[in-house]
């Protein structure tokens, strides 16, 4: 019975060792990561260590929406299905906050760690999202450097400009964007005034064609058309929009760099700033 006493006294120590070991295991960097969201795909591709990222969503290879389509082709593609992801045996899944919620809920029930990265809805959100991805991948140093470089470059492009021409973001079905949307902030950072927002049409609002003609902006920035016929894009062929295009005051500028809150938005800002310099004749 004396031995039993030793066992009783050793049991808590053994249990503590097991718990500590489990904690150490959780602290290890994930070695087989799967991303199921276009925006987390791109942040993960930019930050993951060699061989750490196993799979990205199939959308990441679509050049119309992905700024890293070529790099994404080097990873296993997934379609965000719980069964599919489970069979990949990931030790971490990274996801966005909105889509594939049924998938992430199922994976959590199956014991697979899931990290949800909030969407960046402003330029100032992006450094935080970079650092958050760095945390979940255990790539904090690389994320810190990337976030700092982004902040430095963003501060430079936000420098005041002498002349701010007016612009309107005009999408399928006549939607526009204001300063509370990422696209609207890209517009402002590139040195344009958002004429639609000044007229009372903010993020997610529909801008009537008549109002677009009355605003008469210096430039109308449209989205790139998708192949095939789409009734939502018929508005882009309306005579009012066509008149802007024929006068040189319309440009299809938005593209994959505009979609996600990643450092690629800086490339979108640079190109848009180039269009502004052509309009104003500035040589900044």
From TrEMBL:
Signal peptide start-end: 1-27
Q: Which InterPro entries match?
A: ABC_Transporter_SBP, ABC_transptr_periplasmic_BD
List, for all copies, the residue spans of the domain called Fe/B12 periplasmic-binding: 32-283
Pfam families named among the record's database cross-references: Peripla_BP_2
Q: Determine the domain of life of the protein's source.
A: Bacteria
Q: Please, one GO biological process term?
A: cellular response to iron ion
Report the SUPFAM superfamilies cross-referenced here. Helical backbone' metal receptor
Q: Which UniProt keywords apply?
A: Signal
The record's section on PANTHER family has: MOLYBDATE-BINDING PROTEIN MOLA, VITAMIN B12-BINDING PROTEIN
Q: What is this protein called?
A: Corrinoid ABC transporter substrate-binding protein
